[in-house]
Design brief:
The protein is α/β, with parallel strands linked by helices and 489 residues long. The chain has 17 helices and 18 strands. The structure holds flavin-adenine dinucleotide and iron/sulfur cluster (SF4). Residues 105-107, 161-167, 184-187, 192-193, 197-198, 227-229, 247-249, 251, 273, 304-305, 308, 411, 413-414, 448-450, 454-458, 460 line the site of flavin-adenine dinucleotide.
């Protein structure tokens, strides 16, 4: 070990040999189903230091390889060990524009934490929990809230279509590079799924509002209730702007295509979550857009959106919420943490069942869902065992509403009127160059779910950043692609 300037050996770093993550304090299930407040309460300073002390500060930084935006995780964690929380925040912010959001909603178990060496003999380092701690600490202590400096104006104007994590990240990077940035958003509030989809009890909206206000203060102009493809077309926008980023996400819900889906009381998860999250239906009559879900709510699906829908439904305090899924618990695509929280909250799980019809009363309102029992057969293309219907096993489950949470694909509203914009017709996604994210239309770039199909917040943010760099090159040189190394000089 190298000596210090004063000739003394640096003190040995304390390593916490604890095999499991420092527990996260949470609201008790019986309390939290009565409110929309956040479920995990967050670490205090000592808990955070205790957890950071588990980190081995690995030289090869395997966890960083799992982070889509390359946060220098060990460096940030060592700042926490030294109780320099502002330093940790600055380190994370170097590459992650929205740490308070990513610390809450990133699937860390499939990213940084999946690669953490501690995972070989116990639980991996609690990277997500620590990222959240640091971001919350900075917010509480008003540290690091200075707005980043913007380069002098380049005189170029860019349009961002959609204000989800992809669009917001692109907007942040482009305004800092000196361009004039306008964001066009179909809804009345910015944030995309972060606002209308992910519920308050997983992502408090005040966090998002703070980040968006920061962008507005930096000079980003937000145009709300502005639907590209209806209010104005992409072609018209191209005449007004020097470059465009399409980040319109994948918000077109899938349905079951079974009889009865048009009855009153059938919601797509998108509509249900939007009514509750964006329109504040849970706070009726303070917000005058109620959601009439009734006393017995059935949610169909088993992904994260289904868990969010079921847990949101539970907080409307009906008699019961039942989740219907055609395979078994093992095949559920939702994050384990979400399934665990749903189970703790007494969501009834009807596994190995599929809806075959929704039944209505004389007034056209939902009164029951007809379910068929299933068994598992051979694995299908996804590697999960295929659900096989059991003959003559149908029965009716009485209910007042059905929330269909099967997944989403891109909304063709904007793209269908742009014949020259190359699309993957099977997936409905926009085709963009892998390196630059430029589409078939010069100067038009795209990223996030509209390119990848339904993915994650951090991947959408990574796309926003990648596109912003290429857009900057395009605006400066007329070419989006970086020159090949041998062509330089
Ligand atoms: P979006 O977030 O979808 O934003 C697109 C925006 O574009 C929207 O605001 C939309 O209104 C707007 N728009 C659409 N069309 C137009 C138009 N024509 N003109 C103008 N504006 C338009 N990922 C995670 O990592 N962790 C999670 O926990 C998680 N939970 C999720 C829960 C739910 C309920 C859902 C639906 C998704 C979840 N995801 C999660 C996925 C994640 O939210 C998305 O991958 C991510 O938001 C995609 O970002 P985006 O910017 O591409 O699009
Ligand atoms: Fe720390 Fe785990 Fe990353 Fe190693 S892999 S530096 S232990 S977080």
């Amino acid at each position: 070990m190298a000596d210090n300037d004063n000739g003394k050996k640096p003190p040995k770093r304390k390593i916490n040999k604890q095999k499991v993550k420092t527990p996260m304090p949470e609201q008790a299930p019986e309390d939290r189903i009565l409110n929309f407040n956040e479920v995990p309460i967050g670490y205090d300073d000592d808990m955070a230091v205790n957890e950071a002390e588990r980190c081995l500060d690995c030289k090869k930084k395997p966890c960083v390889a799992g982070c889509p935006v390359d946060v220098d995780i060990p460096a940030a964690l060592q700042f926490i060990v030294k109780r320099d929380f502002a330093g940790a925040f600055r380190k994370i912010k170097e590459t992650n524009f929205l740490p308070a959001i990513c610390g809450r909603v990133c699937p860390q178990e499939d990213q940084c934490e999946l690669h953490c060496v501690l995972g070989k003999k116990g639980e991996p380092g609690g990277v997500g929990r620590l990222e959240r701690f640091v971001a919350d600490w900075a917010m509480k202590n008003d540290a690091g809230s200075d707005l980043p400096e913007c380069a002098p104006s380049t005189g170029k104007k860019v349009a961002i279509i959609g204000s989800g994590p992809a669009g917001l990240t692109a907007a942040s990077d482009l305004i800092q590079l000196g361009h004039e940035v306008h964001v066009f958003e179909a809804l009345h509030k910015p944030g995309g799924v972060l606002f209308y989809g992910i519920p308050e009890f997983r992502l408090p909206k005040k966090i998002l509002v703070k980040e968006i206000n920061g962008l507005a203060e930096m000079g980003v102009k937000f145009h709300m209730n502005y639907v590209i493809g209806a209010t104005e077309t992409l072609s018209e926008l191209r005449d007004r702007f020097d470059a465009i980023f399409i980040g319109v996400g994948a918000g077109l819900p899938w349905f079951l295509n079974i009889p009865g889906e048009n009855l009153n009381g059938v919601y797509s998860s998108n509509e249900f979550l939007t009514r509750v999250n964006l329109m504040g239906a849970y706070d009726f009559p303070n917000n005058d857009t109620p959601v009439k879900a009734g006393e017995r709510i059935v949610v169909v699906g088993a992904g994260n959106t289904a868990m969010d829908s079921a847990r949101t439904a539970k907080r409307l305090q009906p008699e019961n919420v039942t989740l219907v899924y055609r395979r078994s618990r093992e095949e559920m695509p939702a994050r384990e943490e979400e399934i665990h929280h749903a189970e703790e909250e007494q969501i009834e799980m009807k596994l190995l069942h599929t809806p075959v019809a929704i039944l209505g009363d004389d007034e056209g309102k939902v009164k029951a869902v007809r379910l068929q029992r299933m068994e598992l057969g051979e694995p299908d293309d996804s590697g999960r065992r295929r659900p096989v219907p059991i003959d003559d096993s149908e029965f009716d489950l009485s209910c007042d509403s059905v929330v269909v949470a099967l997944g989403c694909s891109p909304n063709p509203l904007m793209t269908k009127v742009e014949p020259d914009l190359k699309m993957n017709t099977r997936r409905g996604t926009v085709i963009a160059d892998e390196d630059t994210l430029e589409t078939s239309l010069p100067g038009v770039f795209a990223g996030g779910d509209i390119v990848t199909g339904g993915a994650t917040v951090i991947l959408a943010m990574g796309n926003g950043r990648q596109a912003a760099q290429a857009m900057h090159r395009y605006l400066e040189t007329g070419v989006a692609r970086a020159p090949e190394p041998e062509a330089i000089g």
